[in-house]
Amino acid sequence: MYSEDDYIQLSAIQHYIFCKRQCALIHVAGLWQENVFTTRGELFHENADSGKIERRINKYTLRSIYISSERLGLSGKADIVEITKSDGAYKMYPVEYKVGKQKLDNCDAAQLMAQALCLEEMMGCSIDFGALFYGKERRRTEIPFTEELRNQTEEVIYAIHDMVKNQIIPDPVYSNKCKSCSLNSQCMPKISHKKIQNYITELYSIT
Prior knowledge:
Elements: E1 8-9, H1 11-18, H2 20-27, H3 36-44, E2 53-56, E3 59-69, E4 74-86, E5 89-98, H4 107-123, E6 129-134, E7 139-144, H5 147-165, H6 184-187, H7 193-205
Parallel strand pairs: 1-4, 5-6
Antiparallel strand pairs: 2-3, 3-4, 4-5, 6-7
Helix pairs in contact: 1-2, 1-4, 1-5, 4-5
């Protein structure tokens, strides 16, 4: 169990899988920088973040709701949670909105899985599926909450807790992903730790 002071944000999961250094710069060093990609994301989320509750026959749609897990030390907002009633039982179905298209890694699926873990703990229920809605594709991709995804997500959560607790900031490693990162200018991924050390050594060796 974690105290609320030690909670990490749900968004840290996506950041960590995308790039460990980006995660550390945001959640350890406290850096953040808007760019065209983050702005598009905010505009895309406006409807999901409205906080409105929609009611239809046997179905509730909750938007932008606060969720948390004491067991995992996790908190944040779920974009949309659909609640349906069937045969007298309620089922919860989290939906996460993403502005771009489906990614090659599982960073979005893990973030969605973490939302389900929070909801399961809060509501004392079991959630088998959720969905990711990608803006470019304009359709939902259903995500099964398998045992493998559950275990992988929890491993990432514990790794982030360790990173934050021990104030770990990994060295930069340049890749194509760096081009879309809003922290590119602060991270300086093309300047490796070794190059910086060599530069400092050469600077102080000048007589």
